[in-house]
Design a protein that fits this description.
It is a single chain. About 55% of the residues lie in helices and about 5% in strands. It has a two-stranded antiparallel ribbon with strand order 1-2. By secondary structure, the protein is mostly helical. It is elongated.
């Protein structure tokens, strides 16, 4: 549904040059502005979620966990707080967040690091990978 002239000029208030008082220019600027507004309403939700996740991650690292193990232990522990509330607790209520973290810690699944294995085609069984030297080889190593 197209916008009326009056609505277009009301939305174009504050624009510079002919964009505020010439309809053919104003309609293009207003439509583009509405597209940006729609796009950025979605982008704000994404950026806020990533900010909450980084705040929670910073909070749980103080107690020897990472974000993913903390969040995997939330439901089994019976705590149903959303990320926004957890981030708020981590920033403003450190003692409450500590209580939540220590309650979740026994329920969190911590996977021990595994040794990477590769499958060799001639044997078909898994064998441990070789550990390569940490430094670059030099000319003196060729002896």
């Amino acid at each position: 549904m197209p916008l009326s002239r009056l609505k277009v000029f009301n939305l174009a208030k504050g624009y510079q040059g002919r964009a505020k008082n010439v309809y053919s220019v104003a309609i293009r600027k207003v439509e583009k502005g509405l597209q940006y507004a729609y796009r950025d309403r979605k982008a704000v939700k994404r950026t806020m979620r990533s900010l909450w996740i980084s705040n929670i991650s910073a909070g749980v690292q103080a107690y020897g966990m990472n974000y993913s193990t903390f969040m995997s232990g939330m439901a089994p522990a019976g705590i149903h707080l959303n990320r926004k509330m957890l981030a708020q607790l981590a920033k403003t209520e450190p003692y409450s967040f500590k209580a939540v973290t220590l309650h979740v810690k026994p329920f969190a699944k911590v996977n021990p690091p595994t040794k990477h294995k590769r499958i060799t085609p001639e044997y078909g069984t898994a064998v441990p990978t070789l550990d390569f030297p940490k430094r670059k080889p030099s000319i003196n190593d060729l002896d």
